Recover the amino acids of this structure.
């Protein structure tokens, strides 16, 4: 089953008959990225997409079943669910009725207005915090306020004011900037949904060392995501870059030739090519060679030999791998060139004279007569 819901997990074992309904817990998703695991004590026939009423604190909550079967057990172990804690184990009450869904939609409609008003209340109390989202429980008895703060905030007075203003039970949850981006969602510079809103569940610390390993520009505006933190995707390929960089020669090694000495300038780690310069201070007489050629020159220098040129001699071909740009193939202006060519061709066709609409067929060319003295019986030219 495929779905566009945040943090969706595809159950590839759903069709295995020996694994169907062998785990009593189900995964239930609420607003945005909030999920919970509940015990199906009554053995209800639940499937992904069913809306259920589950145990809340207090009352009940309304959520959608997103995962069933044995894969729920794997997810619970991944999240560190405490099976031995009786308070952590909550139950599924029933499949949601029409009255439950109507009350759920009524409570959900008040969330945005509650968030705007609660922000004003926090500002009036002089609290240094930002309320990023509000989520009502399915029965409307409790509201969860998600807030961001740099330091510790004493919100005891805020809870009293909010409880008096909205007549519900108040729960405050502090989240980070990455969690806020995951709850709000959005589109990244890659053109896809944010990883934190789509599938990423654990946030690892991202440092500038990951950018240095990948030879990325240390520009904060390019390295920061929508949460104003370093992009999580910088950690995805850093291991591959580190492994490939170990195969390249050291940056401190100077390549010596008969004409000049060459210093490291830059490298394409994945393509395994290195660019050298004749000056330490900048790009002068740049020469790009493969890793294999660089190691050959280093080995020659160790034995007291110097090649005439850094590149291979004339007649020898050095194979440097070329990679296609998959992003360029999907560029938005990839159809513009074709349109321009078509317009140019139409323009040429439009400038043709009108009397050429039905051109007369040309007479076939007559073969030239063979010169005298040609003994070729076929009449061809020798």
């Amino acid at each position: 089953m495929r779905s566009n819901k945040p943090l969706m997990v595809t159950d590839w074992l759903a069709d295995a008959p020996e694994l169907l309904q062998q785990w009593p817990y189900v995964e239930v998703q609420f607003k945005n990225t909030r999920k919970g695991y509940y015990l199906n004590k009554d053995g209800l026939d639940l499937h992904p997409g069913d809306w259920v009423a589950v145990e809340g604190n207090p009352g009940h909550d309304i959520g959608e079943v997103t995962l069933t079967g044995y894969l729920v057990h794997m997810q619970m172990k991944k999240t560190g669910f405490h099976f031995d804690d009786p308070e952590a184990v909550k139950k599924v009450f029933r499949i949601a009725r029409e009255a439950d869904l109507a009350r759920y939609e009524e409570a959900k409609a008040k969330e945005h207005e509650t968030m705007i008003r609660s922000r004003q209340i926090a500002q009036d109390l002089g609290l240094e915090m930002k309320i990023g989202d509000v989520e009502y429980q399915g029965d409307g008895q409790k509201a969860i306020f998600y807030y961001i703060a740099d330091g510790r905030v004493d919100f005891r007075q805020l809870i009293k004011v909010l409880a008096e203003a909205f007549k519900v039970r108040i729960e405050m949850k502090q989240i980070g900037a990455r969690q806020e981006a995951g709850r709000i969602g959005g589109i990244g510079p890659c053109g896809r949904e944010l990883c934190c809103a789509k599938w990423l569940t654990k946030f690892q610390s991202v440092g500038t060392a990951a950018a240095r390993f990948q030879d990325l520009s240390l520009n904060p505006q390019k390295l920061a995501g929508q949460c104003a933190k370093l992009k999580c995707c910088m950690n995805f390929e850093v291991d591959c870059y580190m492994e490939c960089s170990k195969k390249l020669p050291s940056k401190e090694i100077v390549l010596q030739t008969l004409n000049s000495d060459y210093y490291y300038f830059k490298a394409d780690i994945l393509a395994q090519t290195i660019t050298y310069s004749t000056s330490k201070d900048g790009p002068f007489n740049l020469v790009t060679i493969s890793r294999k050629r660089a190691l050959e020159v280093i080995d020659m220098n160790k034995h007291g030999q110097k090649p005439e040129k850094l590149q291979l001699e004339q007649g020898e071909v050095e194979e440097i791998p070329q990679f296609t740009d998959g992003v360029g193939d999907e560029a938005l202006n990839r159809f513009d060139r074709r349109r321009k060519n078509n317009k140019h061709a139409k323009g040429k066709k439009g400038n043709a004279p009108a009397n050429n609409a039905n051109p007369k067929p040309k007479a076939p060319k007559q073969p030239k007569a063979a010169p005298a003295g040609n003994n070729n019986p076929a009449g061809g030219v020798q």
